[in-house]
Amino acid sequence: MFDNVQREDLTAYELILAEQLRQSQGMELIASENYQSPAVLEAQSSHFANKYSEGTPGRRYYGGQENTDKIEQLAIDRAKAIFKADHANVQALSGAAANVCVYAALMEPGDTILGMDLTHGGHLTHGAPVTFLSKVFNFQRYKTKPDGKIDFEQVRALAHEYKPKMILAGFSAYPRELEYEKFAEIAKEVGAIAYADISHIGGLVAAGVLKNPLDYGFHAMMTTTHKSLRWPRGALILSKGTVSNPLKKPEDTIENIPTRIDRSVFPGVQWWPHMNTICAIAVALHEAQTPAFKAYGEQTLKNAKILAQEFLNRWYKLVTGGTDNHMIIVDFSGTGLDGSIAEKALDKIWISTSKSTIPDDPNPPFKPSGLRIGMPAMTTRGVKEADTQKIADFMDRAFKNHENDEALENIKQEVKEFCKKFPVPGIVI
Ligand code: DSN
User: Fold this and answer.
1) How far is ligand 1, taken at its centre, from the CA of residue 200, in Å?
2) In this structure, which residue's CA is closest to atom 2 in ligand 1?
3) β strands within 250-357, DSSP E
4) How confident is the model over 20-45, as pLDDT tens digits?
5) Could you confirm whether 103 is annotated as catalytic?
6) Is the pTM of this model over 0.90?
7) DSSP-assigned states of every residue in 338-365
8) Closest alpha carbon to 187 in 152, 137, 211
9) pLDDT of 53-98, one tens digit each?
10) 51: helix, coil or strand?
11) Residue 172 Cβ < 6 Å to ligand 1
12) Is the Cβ–Cβ distance between 35 and 27 less than 8 Å?
């Protein structure tokens, strides 16, 4: 593979090989990263990349769409079946872009959205004050309780006080299953749209091992496609409702959410879809319908639970005291370490993780008190419970030796040996 790149551009070729080496000899524990299958990678580099296809299947603004229409419809039908949605838009280029499309579809400037505070586990696009979005919409933010879990009394109180047009359930750093029924109940009380951002857990919902918000009264949800779903970088916007006559302006009703979302993606916000990515998503959706994908989801949850237990056994503190999903967040406050020191120590042993704030973190974002660790990628490589115990041991030793470069070098060699037993899909070194 990459013979043509090697012939045409040796510099780029050598960087591709270096990245393959880093990925295969190192360990990926960033909660939002994963490995695509060789079939998905091939589909992504298909000739669909050459095509402009704005619009939706059967209703495009360029000719030559007989194959693009079919591949996009295939992805749509598979996404609807897997997520039990009435409608799927598969064109968004990423989760952030998809959230912007959804807000633009369902809200007017100045409308209120109630979402999770960034420092308590929410995402930048859920209304962090540093974003452009926060200038357009009025974001109100709910937080977590001292036990780290979502404070539903506060969600209800804020909902009744601010009467949001949308209540947003979703996170970037929260290790518990969301109580969708409570969110949906509060949304109903105030007449808000219930919208879920399940980007982190899309694969676990697709595998049927975590709850699907659309089963609990949610009107719409979005998932990125490259995290626990381990597909190409993109997003699915899934909703309940029907697509109305494309020749008429859609009414501003809940039933019309699908039409409003399609029109927001094009012509409202994003314009061109990347058809090669949609082709790869179609292939990946096929993989997600197999028993092997369900087993993957189950194993991811088992591995994350074992990881949490191994840290608790060694007296580390975890945000919320454990996990229901694919991630844990280690709380280093009061230990002399912080998330940044821990992340750097792990980088030195070729384990990738990401520093994270903890609720009400007294430290700044570049030196937060927490470290987020996720199991989706290493589970794709085949690690099981006993291997996860070994992974926890590597990390514990790295934290204890974070100032001892010789000790870290020795652990790195062990990590590289360990990783050889778990090849990255599609990489032969
Ligand atoms: N980058 C994603 C994450 O790490 O959670 C969010 O955008």
Assistant:
1) 8
2) 32
3) 317-318, 327-331, 351-352, 354-356
4) 999 999 999 999 999 999 999 999 99
5) no
6) yes
7) -HHHHHHHHHHTTEE-EEE--TT-SS-T
8) 152
9) 999 999 999 999 999 999 999 999 999 999 999 999 999 999 999 9
10) coil
11) yes
12) no
